[in-house]
Structure formats: structure tokens, C-alpha cells
Design a protein that fits this description.
168 residues; mainly alpha; disordered N terminus
Length: 168
């Protein structure tokens, strides 16, 4: 949402809501510190796993275990995984018309996401994999039951024994 306000000086101030909303989700808050220490190669592998999960492919626990190193434990990796997943989920819920790459990168700066990861995250949100993610999201969304077919008829009785008695 973008709001333009004209001040007494005649200048236009633009105020907009970030893609993640007015408050930073706790998963994303927890992501910020460990992400600063993360190697770019590990980040890209983790991002690839997240994109695969968003496209509906199965992710094995062993894939996450492979990324564990001496300085990066399983709990930290899980925190980063959940944070990035939530960040991308919030960004992908908006249509491309309302979320522009410049605004997305400004929001990442506001979240204190390291600059080295901005391009990779933007490539997921605005890149060629977006239609696949959107298709899977639409396909797997919860829906109300639907009616496949309906056959009906109306019986009209012009005269019955009950109706004859009522007319007398």
C-alpha cells in the first residue's frame, strides 16, 4: 500500500507498507543474526532447497544435514531455513504488479539482510521460477468442496386427490 501525503511545503512524501507487513515476523527476526555469518555457497544451496519445497518437490532431512559444518549447527540452519522460507512466502503472496524489485531490495535493507543475498532472493521473487511456485501455490491451496454435476427436475402436479379435497 502506497500513501502519498502533500505537506505544507508542497512536497510529496511517499509512505508504503513493506512486503512483510507492518511488523517483522518472528521467523524473520530470528534469521537476521545467523544470516550475517552465513557463507554465500551454503545460502544458495539452502535457497535452492526452499525453492524446490515451494514448487512442491520433496526435501529430505539429509539434504539439510549435509550443510551442517563445524561453525554452523543444525539448529542455526533450521532457523535460517524457516526465516528465508517465511520471507519468500510473504514476498510471493503479492502480485508482481504491486511489488517492484527496487522496493523489495529496500525492504531487505530495512530487514538488515546482507547485501550479498539481495540478488539471489530477488531472482526467486522476480525470476523464471516464479510461475512454477505460483502454480503450485494455487494448486495446493485449501478449497471448499465443489459440485461436479447436478441433475434435477421439478414435478408439477396439476391435480391430485389431496388438491381436489382442498378445493371443495
Amino acid at each position: 500500500m502506497i500513501i502519498q501525503v502533500t505537506g505544507s511545503t508542497g512536497r510529496i512524501a511517499v509512505d508504503r507498507t513493506a512486503f512483510f507487513g507492518t511488523r517483522i515476523p518472528t521467523e524473520i527476526k530470528a534469521l537476521i543474526k545467523p544470516l550475517a555469518k552465513l557463507d554465500k555457497q551454503i545460502f544458495r544451496k539452502l535457497l535452492q532447497m526452499i525453492v524446490n519445497a515451494m514448487e512442491g518437490k520433496d526435501i529430505e532431512y539429509s539434504q539439510l544435514k549435509e550443510l551442517v559444518t563445524g561453525e554452523l549447527n543444525e539448529e542455526t540452519l533450521s532457523t535460517i531455513y524457516i526465516g528465508i522460507y517465511q520471507l519468500l512466502k510473504l514476498a510471493l503472496r503479492l502480485p508482481l504488479v504491486s511489488l517492484k524489485p527496487e522496493m523489495f531490495k529496500e525492504d531487505l535493507i530495512e530487514l538488515q539482510i546482507p547485501d550479498a543475498f539481495h540478488e539471489d532472493l530477488a531472482s526467486v521473487v522476480f525470476g523464471s521460477r516464479r510461475p512454477h511456485i505460483d502454480d503450485y501455490t494455487l494448486e495446493s491451496r485449501p478449497r471448499l468442496p465443489k459440485l461436479d454435476s447436478l441433475k434435477w427436475r421439478v414435478d408439477v402436479a396439476i391435480s391430485t386427490s389431496v388438491l381436489n379435497r382442498a378445493l371443495e
